Amino acid sequence: MPERLRTLIDLGISYRGLFFSHQGRQFPLPMMKYLRVVTLFHHKNITELPDSIEELILLRYLDISHTHIERLPNTICKLCNLQILNLSHCQRLVALPRDMHKLIKLEILNLSCCGCLVALPRDMHKLINLRHLDIARTGMMEMPLNLGKLKCLQTLSTFIVSNSGCGIEELGKLTNLRGSLSVLVLQNVESPTAAEGRNLRNMKYLENLELQFEGDTNASESHKIVLDSLQPHTSFKSLTIDGYGGTSFPDWVGDASFSNIVSLGLQNCKFCCSLPPLGQLPSLQDLSILGLDGVVTIDRQFYGSGSTSIKPFGALKSLRFYDILEWKEWSPFEVENEGRAFPNLRDLSIYDCPKLTSGLPTHLPSLVELSIYDCPQLVASIPRASSLCKLTFTDCNTVLLNESPIGIKKLSITSCGKLELPMHLNYSSLEILMLDGCGFLKSFPLFPKLRLLEISDCEDLESLTVGEQHEQDLLLSQINIRRCPNFSYFPQGGLRAPNLKDFTIYNCKSLRSLPEKMHILLPSLEKLDIEDCPQIESFPEGGLPSNLNKIIIGRCPNFAYFPKGGLRAPNLRKFQIRNCRSLRSLPNKMHILLPSLEKLHIIDCPQVESFPEGGLPTNLNEISILRCDKLFASRLGWGLQTLPCVRRFEISGKSEDAESFPDEGLLPTNLTYLLIGYFPNLKYLDTKGLKHLTALEELEITDCHKLERMSKDGLPASLLTLRIDGCPLLEKELERKEEEWVKIAHVPNKYIGWMS
Question: Second label for 278, Cα 20 to 30 Å away, from 172, 519, 645, 685?
Answer without folding.
Answer: 172
